UniProtKB/TrEMBL annotation:
Keywords (A to Z) from UniProt: Arginine metabolism, Hydrolase, Manganese, Metal-binding
Pfam families with a match to the protein in the record: Arginase
Reactions the enzyme catalyzes: L-arginine + H2O = urea + L-ornithine
Enzyme Commission number, as recorded: 3.5.3.1
Listed PROSITE patterns: ARGINASE_2 (PS51409)
Any one biological process term the GO annotation gives: arginine metabolic process
Species: Roseivirga echinicomitans
Enzyme class: hydrolase
Record-given protein name: Arginase
Length: 316
C-alpha cells in the first residue's frame, strides 16, 4: 500500500490578494466542524514560508516577491522529492498556486527518467512568464516554470536583468530545463486566460475540458479522455485549484471566476482521476478564508480533500 504524507505550504507570496496562507488552517477548522479524524491520520510535513516579505514592497514588478517564491519552491521541491524517493504519496496543501512548480520539480527530481504529465483543474491556465504576465503575480506562472516556457513570441513586458536571472533560477529548481512537456498537460475548467496563454494552448494543442463539456459528457467520460491524452506518461500529477469551482459555491479564493464546476463535479472528478495508478501526487491550492463568509470554500475544499484521499486509499 502506498503511504500518504501531507505537505503543508502556508505560502501566499505569489497571489495578488492576501489571505491564501490561511487556507490550510481554514480546512482544518472545516474538518473539526465535521468531527473528522483526517488531520490525525496523516503526519504533516511543514514547509517554511517567506510571507514576511509581504510587509515590504515587491522588488521585481514582473515577478513579485520572486526571491521569496524561489526559496519556497526550492523547499517544496526538496520535500516532495524526498517523499517520492521513499515511495510515499504527497498530498500537498498549499496557499497560492505557484507551489505547484515546486511540487512538479520535486516529482521530477526523484524520477528524472519518468515522463510526467499533469491534470490541471483550474479557472486559469497559469502559463504566464515574467515576459507576458499582466499582473506580476507568480501564481499565474507555475506551468511556465515547469515547462521552462518564456513565450517570447508573445512578449509584453520589458523585464529587468535581475528578473531575468531570477526567472532562470526558478526554471532550474530541481533540475535544469523542462520537467514536463506542454503536450502532457490536460486542463479541466479553464475559462479565464489571456491571449498569451491562448497562444501556448493552441501552439501545443493542449486540451481543455470546459465546464460545459464536463456537464455534457459526465465526469467518467472526461476522466477517461483525460487519461487517454496522457497515455504515454509514466507518472501523473493532479493540481486542484479551488477557483475551478463556481462562484455560486463560494468566492473564498483570490481570483474567482463564474461558470465553474459544481462541487459535485469537482468531487467526482478528483475521486475518479486519482484512481489511475500512475497518479503520484495530488495538490489543493488557493483557499482564502479572508474573502469568504462562514468558511464556505474551506468546507467544500475539505470535503473534496477527504473524499479524494478516501478514493486514493481504496484504490491503492
Ligand atoms: N493560480 C491563480 N489563481 N492564478 C490566477 C492568474 C490570473 C492571471 N492570469 C494573472 O496572471 O495574473
Ligand atoms: Mn491556478
Amino acid at each position: 500500500m502506498r503511504k500518504i504524507r501531507l505537505v503543508e505550504v502556508r505560502s501566499e507570496l505569489a497571489a495578488g490578494t492576501r489571505g491564501a496562507s490561511l487556507g490550510i488552517d481554514a480546512m482544518k477548522v472545516a474538518s473539526l466542524g465535521k468531527h473528522s479524524d483526517f488531520f490525525l491520520r496523516f503526519q504533516p510535513i511543514r514547509v517554511k514560508n517567506e510571507n514576511d516579505l509581504l510587509f515590504q514592497e515587491p522588488k521585481f514588478k514582473n515577478a513579485k516577491y520572486g526571491e521569496g517564491v524561489f526559496t519556497v519552491l526550492k523547499r517544496v521541491c526538496d520535500a516532495v522529492s524526498d517523499l517520492r524517493a521513499e515511495g510515499l504519496f504527497p498530498i500537498v496543501l498549499a496557499g497560492d498556486h505557484s507551489t505547484a512548480a515546486g511540487t512538479i520539480a520535486g516529482i521530477k527530481k526523484a524520477d528524472p527518467d519518468k515522463r510526467l504529465g499533469a491534470i490541471w483543474i483550474d479557472a486559469h491556465a497559469d502559463f504566464h512568464s515574467p515576459y507576458t504576465t499582466p499582473s506580476g503575480n507568480m501564481h499565474g506562472m507555475p506551468l511556465a516554470m515547469a515547462t521552462a516556457t518564456d513565450n517570447i513570441e508573445c512578449e509584453q513586458n520589458d523585464i529587468e536583468e535581475e528578473t531575468e536571472a531570477l526567472w532562470e533560477r526558478i526554471k532550474s529548481i530541481g533540475m535544469r530545463g523542462p520537467k514536463m512537456k506542454p503536450e502532457d498537460i490536460v486542463f479541466i475548467g479553464v475559462r479565464d486566460t489571456e491571449p498569451e496563454e491562448d497562444y501556448l494552448i493552441k501552439k501545443h494543442g493542449i486540451k481543455n475540458f470546459t465546464t460545459a463539456e464536463v456537464t455534457e459528457k459526465g465526469v467518467q467520460q472526461v476522466s477517461k479522455e483525460a487519461m487517454e491524452i496522457l497515455k504515454d506518461c509514466d507518472q501523473i500529477y493532479i493540481s486542484f485549484d479551488v477557483d475551478s469551482l463556481d462562484t455560486s459555491i463560494s468566492v473564498g479564493t483570490g481570483t474567482p471566476v463564474p461558470e465553474g464546476l459544481t462541487k459535485e463535479q469537482a468531487l467526482e472528478l478528483n475521486i475518479e482521476l486519482i484512481k489511475d495508478k500512475r497518479v503520484c501526487c495530488w495538490e489543493i491550492v488557493e483557499v482564502n478564508p479572508t474573502l469568504d463568509t462562514e468558511n464556505r470554500m474551506a468546507n467544500n475544499a475539505f470535503e473534496i480533500l477527504e473524499a479524494t484521499t478516501a478514493s486514493l486509499i481504496q484504490n491503492f
